[in-house]
Give the backbone structure.
Amino acid sequence: MDVKTFIQEQMSNVHGQVDIVMKDLNEEQFNWLPPGTINPISAILLHLLSGEDFFIQGIIQGTPGRWDDQGWLGKIGIQAPGGPGSNWDIFKTASVSIAPVLAYGRDVRAATDTYLAALTEDELDRQVSFAGKMVSVGEVLNILMSHITCHAGEIAAVKGMQGIKGLPF
């Protein structure tokens, strides 16, 4: 198997994990505020999706993210998805609809798939600025897939806190 195919399959697998943990959620479960410092699923999913958007569009390609470019603020109603150093307090009181968030996710995935379809070995080695240092595109993709997987697990745990099954196994 070539590296491009491997990366495309891995990305498909992590996206599949997100699909599994998001299955059968209603609006109340999506916005439920867990005790302690963990965020509701709405915040976690928006963070996960905006992270992929930022990694692929912003860091790797140096282009505007889908959030800004496609006007997702107006469609979802949250000023900005939660990210490092941002204020997540809005998610303690806001009720976010699932449908537009999932639509944003489909938009981000389509952009990711388009980028990965053109991926080359040279592109994987290209250096980009990430977290204050220069790293390869391949390393950024590796970090991104770990990021998505970790947050999919977090969503499954928040579902479990609500007494609903997070993963099918």
In short: The CA atoms of residues 55 and 144 lie 7 Å apart. The first strand starts at residue 127 and ends at 130. The chain has a mean pLDDT of 92. The chain is about 65% helix and 5% strand.
